[in-house]
Amino acid sequence: MPDTPTAKCVLIIAGETSGDHHGALLVSAMKQKRPDIFFCGIGGPEMRAAGVRIIVDAEKLSVVGITEVASKLPSVLAGAAAVKRVIDAIHPDLVILLDFPDFNLRMAAYAKKRGVRVLYYISPQIWAWRSGRIETIRKVVDHMAVILPFEQEYYEKRGVAATFVGHPLLDQGEGLADFGDDSRKPGIIGILPGSRLGEVEKNLHVMLAAASLINRRHPGVKFLVSAAPSIDRDRLSGFMRPYESICDISIDTRNIREILGECTTAIAVSGTVTLDAAICGVPMVIVYRISPISYMLGKSLIRVDHIGLVNIIAGKRVVPELIQNEATPLRIADEISSMIDDPARLSAIRAKLSGVRKKMGGPGASTTTAKIAFSLMDEKNKGR
Questions:
Q1: Is the entire prediction scored with pTM above 0.85?
Q2: Using CA atoms, how far apart are residues 319 and 311, in angstroms rounded to an integer?
Q3: Where are the alpha helices (DSSP H) in the chain?
Q4: What kind of architecture, by CATH, is found in domain 9-171+363-382?
Q5: 96: Cβ contacts below 8 Å, ≥ 6 apart
Q6: Could you point out which of 113, 256, 338, 364 has its C-alpha 20 to 30 Å from the C-alpha of 25?
Q7: According to CATH, where is 3.40.50.2000 located in the chain?
Q8: Domain 188-359 class?
Q9: Ranges in the chain, pLDDT < 50
């Protein structure tokens, strides 16, 4: 708990690896201005390193797909109970929620009932599916700090205070592409299987099988498999073992920007990593496979034409998407091979990725969100 009774308290909740990263950047930005703020909540190693007292490890709560929730339900319920105890015990000056809507909207409702202000940073994708959540958000969230360019207008039209703060990925200066430079040789292909074990288990075997097909067509190509800190290295090695004698493939634990800086193309699981690839100017094939039941349930609720964030921001199909049964090794290999074999197509995709990056705004998302957080905290204190 806080070192002094007068210290401001912020409860922050991030349930996934990307949220842990963005949450850590936000905490650091807030501490630069007000170093005495006490932070506690749910997160991972980056938020802990930034000075957050972790009450529940985010890894215990992260799931993929609708049907996969049941396997972690006891941990989710325990995590919710822990958050409620903290809210009751310290009555924080602000609750900051990062994405993770199934859990976080429930925590927002509890905080609101206790008179605690709520800032939601990184919106649930309600414009894509489960749009009925807007009613809950309007009731329990004081301000949305949104990171996609169309989201501010979406929320404001529905009566929710919102600010487009830019995408936090642009706060990382490394790896930003020179989109006029097409000098990279098609010798290295990135395989980006995601940061959650469920994603890796359902997608990596297809991506590796595609790599073996690509290698037959393009001998000498090298594959780098991005290993997120949240994924066990031995588990990844087990997936890769059958392919190590077939093609030049290796696990890479470096920062994703460093990996992408060496790649001409990539096979990427749908998610934030596709925006990293766009920022780095790397044409990609987006793939995504989940359990059949989760897919059927999700498909009936989705209201957008694209699933990849790159294509959603562009408003058109900039890079190929292969979802569920379409995500076969042959289809993936065909798409990557067509890019390798057609430099003009590769350049055209890179030009379109440049347009996506421009739409994402500029750097400073963490700093802008920190200002919104301070404003909400100051307004609460004025009301006392």
A1: no
A2: 7
A3: 17-33, 45-49, 73-90, 101-113, 133-140, 151-156, 197-217, 233-240, 256-260, 272-279, 292-301, 309-314, 329-341, 343-359, 365-382
A4: 3-Layer(aba) Sandwich (3.40)
A5: 10, 11, 12, 13, 23, 26, 41, 119, 120, 121, 373
A6: 113
A7: 9-171+363-382, 188-359
A8: alpha beta
A9: 64-68, 180, 384
